[in-house]
Amino acid sequence: MDSNSNATNPRVTTFVGGRTGEWAVRSQRTLAGESLKPASRISMRIGHDAESEDAVWVVRGVTTNDRYTTSSEKRELISRQVPVGRPEATRSALILLRKSAEWWAMPQDERRQILEEQSQHIAIGLRYLPAIARKLLHCRDMETSQPFDFLGFLDYAPKDEPAFEEMLGQLRATKEWTFIDREIDIRLYKAEV
User: Fold this and answer.
1) Could you give phi then psi for residue 25, rounded to 5 degrees?
2) What does the pLDDT read at residue 67?
């Protein structure tokens, strides 16, 4: 694949932290592992393009196949979720996650057992659709090594912020979350252009 086709790959999303971008940073917290340099704005771009003179960090992920979702769960997700970028969704969170080597050493069926049967990750998320929209990106499927395994971009209207906090609190209390060894939580609001 040449670099021109790579730059416009619609499955790749690049987040650039710096002083410019459509999202202004409300807070940037490191909950586990190494931190990122602070950014005041974040730009979300489709493809690999990250040209920016003021970039302090760049992270990328790709939309990929559902690894842990059953066919009935997938049907329900598709029927209830909405795309990110709705006009009323002026608040968002970019959650950067890396799971431990112990997690990745387990077979996929054991990871599914922890993710859904024990932690109910998908079931928790379904309760908050469509108020909270999500874009889940996988980093381990990228051509080059990335500092995270997953990038979660979630947006919502200001009135739905308490529901978002409730959902995130439930997820963080699960057994699945005990396998997180790096987590950065960046809260954003739609910036005036």
Assistant:
1) -85, 125
2) 79
Say how far apart CA 151 and CA 62 lie, in whole Å.
9
Count H helices and E strands in the chain, helices first: 6, 8
Long-range Cβ contacts of 138-144 (<8 Å, 24+ apart): 138/61, 138/62, 138/63, 138/64, 139/59, 139/60, 139/61, 139/62, 141/62, 141/64, 142/12, 142/60, 142/61, 142/62
Coil vs helix vs strand at 88 = coil
May I ask the CATH architecture of the domain 3-190? 2-Layer Sandwich (3.30)
Give CA–CA dist 114/10, Å, rounded: 31
The predicted-structure confidence for 84-109, as pLDDT tens digits, reads as follows 999 999 999 999 999 999 999 999 99
User: How far is 188 from 90, CA to CA, in rounded Å?
Assistant: 8
CA distance 101 to 71: 28
Do 157 and 91 touch, CB atoms closer than 8 A? yes
Which residues of the chain are under the pLDDT cut of 50? 1-6
